[in-house]
Amino acid sequence: MEAAFYSTSIAKPSFTLFFLGLLLLFANSVPLPDNAKTHSYDFVIRTAWADGPEFVTQCPIRPGASYTYRFTITGQEGTLWWHAHSSWLRATVYGAIIIHPKEGSSYPFPKPTRETPLLLGEWWDANPMDVIAEATRTGGSPNISDAYTINDTVIVPIGSGETNLLRVINAGLNQQLFFTVANHKLTVVGADASYLKPFTTDTIMLGPGQTTDVIITADQLPARYYIAAHAYASAQGAPFDNTTTTAVLEYKTAPCPAKGGGPIKPINATLPVFNDTATATKFTTSLRSPSKAAVPTEIDESFFSLLQAHQQGIPGVFTTDFPASPPVKFDYTGNVSQALWSPVRATKVYELKFGSQVEVVLQGTSIFTAENHPVHLHGYDFYIVAEGFGNFNRKRDTAKFNLVDPPLRNTVLGLCIVTWTFTQAGVWPWFSSSTMESGNYNH
């Protein structure tokens, strides 16, 4: 199977479809004025090389050139996506990747009547590369986006009584988003190409890079209903794009001019207010694996990794003193002294032993401002065993860990504890999936 990507005036998603267990050929032609590299977000492909980040695990695709990915998909079903992994080219170069059950198997829920991928994106009234270049030149923050998009503009058809599996992807650079469908319940069945224990909600929330699969049932009066998304903005005082993007869920039997009726205005959707942390938290903490999960419970303390600079004996590239815990203890979510605001430029490595069981506490801070921060790990899914607010306290909080059915994801937000088993050797980027904060980049 082949797919090509192009840079146009607005994101033109390229939906690729293939089956679990089959070999995938994914070729990317790049008639762009800039270098580019794509990242498939987030296949488990057993090797860190050709993982996508330019100048980290491979060289960028030169303008007019192409690159072929060839790998086998195993153990993942659901929705992922691919995008340029080169500065802000990701703003326009991305598409959906849909992994169906292999032949002879089925979904763990009744097969929906139809499926619709919905890519949520951010739009600037300027070249995104110019936006980030200006921010780099001045040292200021990049301009916020001017609008959000859903597949450009889309009509989602549905017949009365039908079900539609909406594969929702937040392909935006920086913003967490609330998503809803007017007058329709959303049954959540999967996220980040992993199935979930189904539950029903009015609204879902996705951070940059996250995907969520929801099923809607056409159980309302035949009409047109808005599908809508807008920002969830948790950072106090930080500017954000406060526009709303919409698509339309249209019943096949709804009155319309083509059928001799008048135009029917879509029924409005109700979204949470921009800073509704309670709704966002209720959603993320409702995610559960469909059955008992193989959560690592015995966490190892000896670590080792395979790095090219290490293998070839190249000195001065990195140091192996990346701390296992913050070297300076402070009230992470209180008033932070500005003496802690100055970072140190360094390349530090935390070495992991192959097969070790890893636990990472992701502690947000109020340096600059507190927010629900998205973090993405290449090459792995991980179990989210706990989420919360404030400062993590192991004695107090360990008892709250969900070691039975935690959700399996590749991108997470806020204060949380994640675990996984390190079974893929190499250098795997672990970084903020908010492009505004792309300096937060660990391996």
TrEMBL record:
Q: Where is the Plastocyanin-like domain?
A: 46-103, 115-253, 321-413
**Which terms does the record give in the GO molecular function aspect?**
copper ion binding; hydroquinone:oxygen oxidoreductase activity
Task: Name where it mostly resides.
Answer: secreted
Signal peptide residue numbers: 1-29
Which cofactors does the annotated protein need, by name? Answer: Cu cation
- Stated EC number for the protein is 1.10.3.2
Please provide the record's keywords in A-Z order: Apoplast, Copper, Glycoprotein, Lignin degradation, Metal-binding, Oxidoreductase, Repeat, Secreted, Signal
Q: What class of enzyme is it?
A: oxidoreductase
A Pfam family hit: Cu-oxidase_3
GO BP annotation list? lignin catabolic process
Indicate the transmembrane segments per the record: none
Where is it localised? Secreted, Extracellular space, Apoplast
- A Gene Ontology cellular-component term: apoplast
Q: Which reaction does it catalyse?
A: 4 hydroquinone + O2 = 4 benzosemiquinone + 2 H2O
Spell out the family assignment given in the record's similarity comment. Answer: Belongs to the multicopper oxidase family.
* Entries under PANTHER family matching the protein: LACCASE-5 (PTHR11709:SF431), MULTI-COPPER OXIDASE (PTHR11709)
Q: What is this protein called?
A: laccase
Name its species.
Rhododendron williamsianum
